[in-house]
Amino acid sequence: MKKIWLWTTVLLMPLCAAAQQNWKAVMRYDKQAVKSALADRLQEYAQADSHAQLQAATVPSTKQQTAFAKELAKQLKHLGASQVKVNKNGIVTAEIPATIQQDLPVLALVTHLDTPPQAQAQKPQLHAKYTSGNIVLNKAQNLALTETNSPQLLRAHGHDFLTGNGVSPFGADSKAGLTVLFTLVDYLLENPSLQHGLIKLVILPDGISHAGAEALNLTELGADYAYTLGGTDLGEIAAANFSGKSFTVTFDGRRDIPLGQALSAPFADNLLMASDFHTLLPRNRRPETTFGTQGYITVDDIVTQQNRSTVTGHIRAFNDADLQQLTSQVQQAFDTVKSMYPKRTGAELTFQDQFKNAQSKTQQPLIRSLEKAMRQEDIRPKQISVRNQTDFAVLTSRGLPAVGVFTGVFHGGEPMEYADVDIMENALRTLLATILNFPPQPSQAK
Fold first, then answer.
1. How far apart are CA 392 and CA 358, in angstroms?
2. For 269-300, how does the pLDDT look when each residue is reduced to its tens digit (9 = 90+)?
3. What is the model's pLDDT at position 260?
4. How far is CA 115 from the centre of its chain?
5. Please, what's the largest Cα pairwise distance for the chain?
6. How far apart are the C-alpha atoms of 374 and 402, rounded to whole Å?
7. What is the pLDDT of residue 4?
8. Whether the predicted pLDDT of 316 surpasses 90
9. Which segments within 113-258 are labelled E, that is strand?
10. What is the rounded CA–CA span in Å between residue 133 and residue 156?
11. pLDDT greater than 50 at residue 19
12. Alpha carbons 357 and 389: distance in angstroms, whole number
């Protein structure tokens, strides 16, 4: 990878303190060469099978993730990273030593290596300098990216894209972050004159289930803050996530009564009770009818075994008031069904807290640094709320303040998944500018 960095041929001028660095003022930067390197590296990583399994009893959930973790550790050693390790959970950790004698917070850069269970290892196709029109992914299945199903294309004329075969995702959702991280590591280690604090590198397995983030030993890591790489559109900073709650409803009836005698017998249809409960949940608070910071209720499964029907589902909301309102609506639907079926033999509703919105004031130094770096790179920052659980939320809730950084992946985990190489290049510059100026106000960061 050394040949891609044209700036390494330039004699670097002495740099000032970390808070004042402007790397673009002292070196050349070949954007096209960097984009080519990013595309090549993502194509390489996409050909490695590292799929995860959901609801597995072990971390990592597959041996393929372990094999890929060991390969990535070898690459980190080759690049010159120190303290490279792969632990029993398939978590890769490493360090980029500090190049400045200054008391700075320890910053961790975190990404994950797994792909969804349905992802296929494949070599993505490069579509250079998009102008307009459709990008055909699979002609046989008539599957294509259009400016209707992928409106991001309207803002991406002239960009380079990587797409899969249209049959399954190719893993860009994790591996674009890996690509940006390794390209950044390559650059920093080739330029030791740049001044920055100690940087910890973390590559997690099982990012799909967040089991890797839960298994990470934060005490051993010893970081003060973390950026996670795995976001989407240009300039997005993810610092808020859903709070989550699950529910389980059971309805007991008498479906074993001869149906011809149902009118005069203690017949009670527990399957119909479950169906009515599902129907009574508000349609305007379903996942497909909500967006942004609107919470939702959804049923995951309905299982009937003889005289018992069990309904499982979950609730998502960004604030406690909305979570309580949605919880009350589930309770109301349950109570209504109970009143409709006096012949039922039993009914029960239970709730279980899953996770909380991790948004915290402790994330502010991270956000300030990203916003400053983006403006320096002529990128408009945009804070977003993520409509699911994420690694940054797990880490923040466990005591390591973290926020998510964009990496240019769209339709993540779907056959239409694609990576915008130009946005990946913007992510690289953003992280570089952030690291060299972190934190913007050192006295308030710790």
1. 8
2. 999 999 999 999 999 999 999 988 899 999 99
3. 81
4. 11
5. 94
6. 17
7. 52
8. yes
9. 125-127, 135-138, 143-145, 161-163, 199-204, 225-229, 236-241, 243-252
10. 12
11. no
12. 9
**pLDDT band at residue 6 using 50, 70 and 90 as cut-offs:** very low
The H-or-E segment that residue 299 falls in is strand 296-305
Cα(66)–Cα(206) distance, integer angstroms? 11
- At 394, list the tokens: 């797990």
* In the block, residue with structure tokens 């390489």: 44
Between CA 335 and CA 36 the distance in angstroms is 60
Structure tokens at 326: 């949605």
Separation CA 328–CA 322 (nearest Å)? 10
For the beta carbon of residue 185, count every other beta carbon within 10 angstroms.
21
Q: Give pLDDT tens digits for 168-201.
A: 999 999 999 999 999 999 999 988 888 999 999 9
pLDDT value at residue 259: 83
Report the distance separating Cα 115 and Cα 418, nearest Å.
14
Q: Is the pLDDT of residue 80 over 50?
A: yes
- What tokens does 151 get? 């409106």
- What is the model's pLDDT at position 24? 56
DSSP class of 289: G
Return the structure tokens found at 139: 């002609």
The confidence score (pLDDT) of residue 12 equals 33
**Two tokens, residue 229:** 């790489």
Helix (H) or strand (E) holding 124: none
Count the neighbouring beta carbons within 10 Å of the beta carbon of residue 176. 34
Neighbours of 361 (CB within 10 A): 7
What is the rounded CA–CA span in Å between residue 253 and residue 268?
5
Tell me how many helices (H) and strands (E) the chain has: 11, 18
Mean pLDDT rounded to a whole number for the chain: 91
- Tokens encoding 158: 């002239």
The one-letter amino acid at 298? T
Q: Which two tokens stand for residue 435?
A: 């690291």
CA distance 186 to 184: 5
Going from the C-alpha of 313 to that of each of 66, 125, 281, 331, the distances in angstroms are 32, 38, 11, 13
Q: Point out which residues pair with 162 in neighbouring strands.
A: 126, 419
Domains of the chain: 2-241+358-445 (3.40.630.10), 244-355 (3.30.70.360)
pLDDT tens digits along 133-165 = 999 999 999 999 999 999 999 999 999 999 999
Tokens linked to 163: 């797409």
Per the DSSP assignment, residues forming a β-bridge with 418 are: 163, 410
Q: Which residues contact 8 (CB under 8 A, 6 or more apart)?
A: 2, 190, 191
pLDDT over 80 (residue 21)? no
